Amino acid sequence: MNLQNDPLAALWMPFTANRAFKASPRQLKAAKDMHYVSDDGRQILDGTAGLWAVNAGHCRPQIVEAIQKTAAELDYAPPFQLGHPLAFELASRVAALMPKGLDRIFFTNSGSESVDTALKIALAYQRAIGQGTRTRLIGRERGYNGVGFGGISVGGIVNNRRQFGTLLTGVDHLPHTLNMEHNAFSRGLPTWGAHLADQLESIVALHGAETIAAVIVEPMAGSTGVLPPPVGYLQKLREITAKHGILLIFDEVITGYGRLGGATAAEVFGVTPDLITMAKGLTNAAVPMGAVAVSRHVHDGVVEGGPDGIELFHGYTYSGHPLAAAAGIATLDIYKSEGLFERAADISGYWEDAVHSLKGKRHVIDIRNAGIVAGIELEARAGAIGKRAMELFHKCFDTGLLVRVTGDIIALSPPLILEKAHIDEMIGKIGDVLETLD
What's the pTM? Predict the structure, then answer.
């Protein structure tokens, strides 16, 4: 088709029903603080922080100015065998926010790259300490760990995997933790399900601990519908992995930087893994960036235990990019000066009460929450999974609210600068739209 006649034709959109979107496009042209502006000039309240990412709100001047200043001074610096001060400064700042001991930071450009990096570090570590038979990786059903081949191999979303062949070999999966029979409408962490972590012992018994390098889980699964961990579940995973010499990786691409009321979910839940992946809120999504926080013993096992020369044959052209580093430093400044992590913790009770007020609304079969996150699950239409929630997505957008849907689950994760009035508006609009759905 001639692009002059169809200006939307050239772009193949990610994770999008392209034919449906281009038949009825919805576009955004500007953003500020808690709102987007649609292409027809309407204010759209952001109920999702973009994609779980804009934790400090949109177009913050401090971040914009930092990016502009750096672009004029140092547009790019190669990260191999060279460095620049902003990357070292940001790494030190990030390390200070991590749980004790996770103070070695490897920069990437996305959450997907962070996951693949963490998996490779885990394998390299086991080999470096003389445990080269440990090559197996354990993920979890309904886990989202990005879209690299490593991430979709350990991830547990069928639609993300089925088009792409056999993926990595030597991968197994823990069961997911959602069970609405026991935990429907739980407020915060469900009380049933810690025993599901014991399935790791079964996997160890099947394959042998000496074959397993690492376990990776999201402390709270986000993209598959907000699945908070059962009370005690993460602690059990930590105990089992430590007992068997298996590294534990927390994928905190969503949960990091205030989303649950602390710098990390590891801090909030009191469980320290060996590696933490991050992205999204690291730069407030203003410039793409990810990172892996690595425990000192893992870092030293690879770096100090390796031969002379390059210790880890891994990295990216844009690792620690100057503009991203500048954005990250400015973002961390805002989190600290405005107390946004503490703010999220303080308003989380009001948030919980508000989202659970939707219990009893038409089609709602479960509500789950943790920190400033909520998953509202709708009953699926017969033979049309996801259709009801997608209709709600469109109607909410048309009435001035951006939500995210996955299957028939509404996921909410607004910027952490939100006020109670924003919460009331979000929940009010969702409740009104629910009443219009068949």
Answer: 0.97
